[in-house]
Design brief:
The structure is a single chain. The protein has four helices and no strands. It is mostly helical. Helix 1 packs antiparallel against helix 2. It is globular, with a radius of gyration of 16 Å.
Length: 97
């Protein structure tokens, strides 16, 4: 495990603990389902680290770029990156300025 993976592994474990504590207190069903889904992704990422498969695309087996893993350590495949563009801020067109 390299230094970046070690750091992400510690962050994942800390986040897992925080989510588990939040689930104990949470009473809103809509938020509970979101937290459970995130916890599932975190557990999968932790398992991958332990198996030495962290950072590998689940579809192709190729390695996901480290910069992307640092931003989203629970990402599962390179295909998931195709959906990310929907979350980026789009620059304003200069026609509006």
């Amino acid at each position: 495990m390299n230094a970046m993976q070690e750091k992400l592994f510690l962050e994942l474990r800390q986040t897992k603990e925080e989510i588990e504590n939040s689930l104990k207190k949470q009473k809103k069903q809509w938020l509970t389902s979101i937290l459970k889904a995130e916890l599932k992704d975190i557990n999968t990422a932790i398992q991958k680290v332990e198996e030495g498969k962290f950072g590998q695309c689940e579809i192709s087996g190729e390695f996901i770029p480290d910069d992307l893993l640092k931003m989203i350590p629970t990402i599962r495949s390179v295909k998931d990156t195709e959906d990310l563009e929907h979350y980026y801020k789009k620059p304003l067109s200069t026609a509006f300025l």
